[in-house]
């Protein structure tokens, strides 16, 4: 299923009619699945994504099993995935999602901040890892980085280094 499109600038009908000759730039929408068991965190993530009109939260789920089902059904571009989920933890959900939806990119958003957990999470094929404590500053840059096919890890992760970036956890 091809990605949907968003018209930037959301012009009302009257404006469009008056400006028919003017070209409206249409960009492909980035479709986002949010997987988080805490409603307040899901709300925060949705609000952060509203900053970018071309990024659409298409579904929110609260457990790992449902995440796998919705990922297979919806084929989102980005999946923001917590680790500590009921029914199926985020690590196992990520492994299953990567098999079913290899084109979907995964960004973990977790309270876990150990370098060992980050390593395990990224070994699933995920490209991003954001600590919840850094969500407001790091989540959108992480998604931008992951959409380019690069890895992103919150700077606050102690003891973890991205390959090829000595002394830094995330691109500057």
Descriptive keywords:
single chain, 172 residues, alpha/beta, Rossmann fold, six-stranded parallel sheet, two-stranded antiparallel sheet, 6 helices, globular, disordered N terminus
Notes on the structure:
By secondary structure, the chain is of the alpha/beta class. The protein has a single domain (about 30-155), classed as Response regulator (Rossmann fold), CATH 3.40.50. About 35% of the residues lie in helices and about 20% in strands. The chain contains six helices and eight strands. The chain has helices spanning about 15-20, 40-50, 65-75, 90-100, 115-120, 135-145; strands at about 5, 25-30, 30-35, 55-60, 80, 105-110, 130, 150-155. A six-stranded parallel beta sheet has the order 4-3-5-6-7-8, sandwiched between helices. A two-stranded antiparallel sheet has the order 1-2. Strand 3 (about 30-35), helix 2 and strand 4 form a beta-alpha-beta unit. Helix 3 runs parallel beside helix 4. The radius of gyration is 17 Å and the shape is globular.
Topology:
Blueprint: E1 5-7, H1 13-18, E2 26-28, E3 30-35, H2 39-49, E4 55-61, H3 64-74, E5 78-81, H4 90-100, E6 105-110, H5 115-122, E7 128-131, H6 135-147, E8 152-153
Parallel strand pairs: 3-4, 3-5, 5-6, 6-7, 7-8
Antiparallel strand pairs: 1-2
Helix pairs in contact: 3-4
Indicate the CATH class. Alpha Beta
Using the 3D structure, state the CATH architecture.
3-Layer(aba) Sandwich
Q: Estimate the mean pLDDT confidence.
A: 82
Q: Strand order, main sheet: write it out.
A: 4-3-5-6-7-8
Spans of at least 5 consecutive residues whose pLDDT stays below 50 are 1-16
Major sheet size, sense and barrel closure: 6 strands, parallel
Total of DSSP H or I helical runs spanning 4+ residues: 6
Query: Could you tell me the radius of gyration in angstroms?
Result: 17 Å
Corresponding CATH superfamily: Response regulator
CATH topology: Rossmann fold
What general outline do the C-alpha atoms trace? globular
The N- to C-terminal Cα distance equals: 34 Å
How many strand elements? 8
Give the tally of structural domains.
1
Look at the helices and sheets and give the structural class: alpha/beta
Secondary-structure element sequence? EHEEHEHEHEHEHE
Strand content: 15-25%
Helical content stands at 25-40%
